[in-house]
Design a protein that fits this description.
Order of helices and strands: HHH
Mean pLDDT: 92
Helix content: over 70%
Shape: elongated
Distance between the termini: 35 Å
Strand content: under 5%
Largest sheet: none
Low-confidence stretches: none
Length: about 70
């Protein structure tokens, strides 16, 4: 799925509404992470790299398990 600028802008509007209703100190880390993801390109790159590395680790782990069986 390709995430567009419009999709991120809509999500930022949802977050702004949520923070208006609940305050900025709501303690919900997923909201904070999504806000940062939508507004910081370097953060998106780090998330992408982390997800890619995690997927490769899982593939390698599954490969090693299948060899031992």
């Amino acid at each position: 799925m390709n995430i567009t600028k419009e999709m991120m802008d809509l999500k930022l509007l949802e977050i702004a509404k949520f923070e208006q209703e609940n305050g900025k100190d709501h303690g919900i880390t997923s909201v904070n992470a999504m806000k940062k993801y939508c507004s910081d390109i370097r953060y998106r790159e780090r998330v992408r790299d982390f997800n890619k590395a995690s997927a490769e680790t899982i593939k390698e782990y599954n490969y090693l398990i299948n060899i031992k069986c």
